[in-house]
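The methods section describes the discrete structure representation at length, but only in general terms. An entry of this sort, consisting of the sequence and the corresponding backbone structure tokens, reads as follows:
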Amino acid sequence: MNILDYAVKTAKKAGTFILKEQKKSLKVTKKGIRDLVTNADKASEKLIIKEILSAYPDHGIIAEESHSAKDLAKIAQAPYIWIIDPIDGTTNFANGMDQYAVSIGIFKTKSSKSSKNFEYLEGELIAGVVYAPALKQLYTAQKGKGAYLNSKRIKVSKTKKVIDAVYATGFPYKNKQTNMPYFAAILEKCRGVRRWGAASLDLCSVARGHFDAHWELGLQAWDIAAGALIVKEAGGQVTDINGNQLDLFGQDLFASNSNIHKETVQIFKTL
């Protein structure tokens, strides 16, 4: 079983678990004033980590509920790093909505260096899985081998102008107002803007052509690792909001079908 197949197996196992947990009485707590976490998030993460380490004990793991910036120097020595979000879209999940997913990105490490946010890991994403169990959607990608939804090849849209494009975005739990200038500028110039509350699924929707682009501020590596690769393998472009190379730890992202990338970045740069 190759590493992508094992990631799929693990994501499905976690998805089956959290579907069952959603039917129970969830224990919901707060990591911040608005940022929720449930007992299912924590249990799903433990399940995923156990599965990974049972097959790849020398691999590193960056996970939403148990990460520590202090551990990154050690993690950077691992040949591969699994970047996982046990439930992306926890608020949706906790409110009984279907728009949530297990996200697993696999990063091949080259070296590490310091960045403004974290110990920055140099290397490349080689595989990604986003599994939305309630929606019965399994998105997968492997570097150089295309992107798929339920084993069917997917491609980004062909929309060529911002005025004809539908965008997705999200708002950070802290400092929500930081996205308002971008939101207002794009809303004025495009066909429409949507918000689903799960960055991994927004990115996958760009990959399958339902959205033409997605931008967001205040993200973390586990929000975007898998989805970023899926967009790229579907023929799209992924950068930061200034059009520069994406830093998984840089906290902002812009993904598009490529055609409207330059025009959108120019709008962002005027703000």
User: Anything to note?
Assistant: Residues 162-269 form a domain with the D-Maltodextrin-Binding Protein; domain 2 fold (CATH 3.40.190.80).
